[in-house]
User: Which sequence fits this backbone?
């Protein structure tokens, strides 16, 4: 068995008395590529927000590489090695594609949140950022203003920014949302390539079941804030509870 990289222990989160994450426990194995699925409003993004420190849980603990990160600030969690992309992209639209990544590389290397204006003295950061853009297939658009990129490429840039944080665990929130079928599969290929190339643990939230069952080693199903099921794709696609609550007629 591979060692666990992330452990969630009885996590609870409510907003204004409304419980959104209800006593969730889970462990994520080192190096795994896994998916989280579930209906709209199930609590998937909230789950990522808790892991990355954007929200504080009401109770429960989160351990990364055996150390509790519960209550830590997002920036400190990033520095330990957890990065994410966002359901709604989180880039600086006025900056160029390259500058978006450079700014993150420099901020990550400096270890504080004071924004910097990249200058020529940051050549190694530029080189690193350009390398990341090559890895994700955006190098030919490095000088474009980010806000002018097509939606699909803005989502890829968001992943590039997350990679600039040198994560050991990368959380992707609906990386293919809003993309054309062609863009989707290109993105899926990219996710698989990055996962293999970087040997990191990756968890992605996804609504497209062909993608989920096509590339995940493990699938977890969130439903009304609870972990309804977890297992290998072939187990989940046949799970009666999951079919009834979520998959319905989507699965043969
Ligand atoms: N900051 C917040 N304040 C109040 N309620 C919130 C907040 N964030 C999320 N919620 C509520 O928590 C519930 C779960 O939301 P969440 O965004 O985690 O769902 P999701 O599974 O990611 O859904 P989707 O598939 O639509 O992205 C929703 O009812 C949402 O309105
Ligand atoms: Mg969401």
Assistant:
């Amino acid at each position: 068995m591979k060692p666990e990289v992330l452990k969630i222990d009885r996590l609870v989160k409510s907003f204004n008395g409304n419980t959104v994450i209800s006593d969730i426990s889970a462990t994520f194995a080192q190096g795994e590529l896994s998916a989280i699925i579930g209906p709209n409003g199930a609590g998937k993004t909230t789950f990522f927000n808790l892991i990355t420190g954007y929200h504080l849980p009401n109770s429960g603990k989160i351990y990364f590489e055996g150390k509790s990160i519960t209550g830590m600030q997002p920036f400190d969690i990033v520095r330990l090695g957890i990065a994410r992309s966002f359901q709604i992209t989180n880039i600086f639209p006025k900056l160029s594609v390259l500058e978006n990544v450079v700014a993150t590389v420099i901020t990550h290397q400096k270890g504080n949140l004071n924004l910097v204006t990249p200058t020529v003295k940051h050549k190694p950061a530029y080189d690193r950022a350009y390398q990341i853009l090559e890895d994700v297939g955006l190098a030919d658009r490095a000088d474009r203003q980010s806000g002018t990129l097509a939606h699909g490429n803005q989502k890829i840039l968001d992943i590039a920014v997350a990679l600039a944080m040198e994560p050991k665990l990368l959380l992707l929130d609906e990386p293919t949302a809003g993309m054309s079928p062609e863009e989707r599969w290109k993105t899926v290929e990219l996710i698989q390539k990055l996962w293999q190339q970087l040997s990191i643990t990756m968890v992605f939230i996804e609504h497209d079941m062909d993608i989920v069952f096509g590339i995940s080693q493990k699938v977890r199903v969130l439903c009304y804030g609870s972990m309804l099921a977890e297992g290998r794709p072939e187990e989940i696609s046949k799970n009666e509870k999951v079919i009834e609550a979520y998959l319905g007629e989507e699965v043969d």
User: Anything to note?
Assistant: The two ends are 32 Å apart (CA to CA). Residues 90-166 form one domain.
